[in-house]
Amino acid sequence: MTTWQDEGIRIRRMVPEDYEEAYALWERTPGMHLQSLNNTYGGIALLLTKNPNSCFVAVDADGRVVATALGATDGRKGYLYHVAVAEQWRGHGIGTTLINRIYDVFKAVGIVKIGILVVADNVEGQEFWKKQGWNTRPDVIYFDHNL
Ligand SMILES: CC(C)(COP(=O)(O)OP(=O)(O)OC[C@H]1O[C@@H](n2cnc3c(N)ncnc32)[C@H](O)[C@@H]1OP(=O)(O)O)[C@@H](O)C(=O)NCCC(=O)NCCS
């Protein structure tokens, strides 16, 4: 069976220069929550600067971004953001590989707990996390506030 690696897909750290292609992927991925003020170039570049080792892209043989997974930590807990795989590459294990890379980085710096916010109507996304062994937190209500 041909794998994504055989097809020339490779995984590398995300850099700010990937923003435009990554954002285009997020825009065409239903279930991504992009309205937040944090999703500007500046917001993502800041996240990458603070978390340079735990944010990854998968790029195809032509160097185009086909998947992203951003891992960020405040030093105590880890969070995943923008886990997305281009539709034509789903179901090949790329999403799992990307998050496993983030787990490894987090574990190496002593992070033992990770979380992700998934929008309520992204049922497919929720199924993916359940399949990955994640638990929902119905006891928690998320608040946010613009500064
Ligand atoms: C969710 C997503 C990132 C998964 O990426 P992927 O590369 O297709 O996932 P993988 O190939 O690594 O799949 C891993 C396992 O999860 C399963 N899976 C993938 N998507 C699933 C879904 N929507 N529902 C249930 N199971 C799913 C796969 O069947 C696979 O199981 P297997 O190992 O038993 O075959 C991708 O489908 C996507 O980009 N979805 C839209 C964005 C999104 O919802 N992101 C997550 C919420 S933030």
From TrEMBL:
Could you tell me the keywords of this UniProt record?
Answer: Acyltransferase, Transferase
Residue intervals of the N-acetyltransferase domain? 9-147
Q: Which GO terms describe its molecular function?
A: acyltransferase activity, transferring groups other than amino-acyl groups
Task: Classify the source by domain of life.
Answer: Bacteria
SUPFAM superfamilies the UniProt entry points to: Acyl-CoA N-acyltransferases (Nat) (SSF55729)
What PROSITE patterns would the database entry show? GNAT
Under the heading Pfam families, the entry gives: Acetyltransf_1
Protein name as annotated: Acetyltransferase
Native organism is Bifidobacterium cebidarum
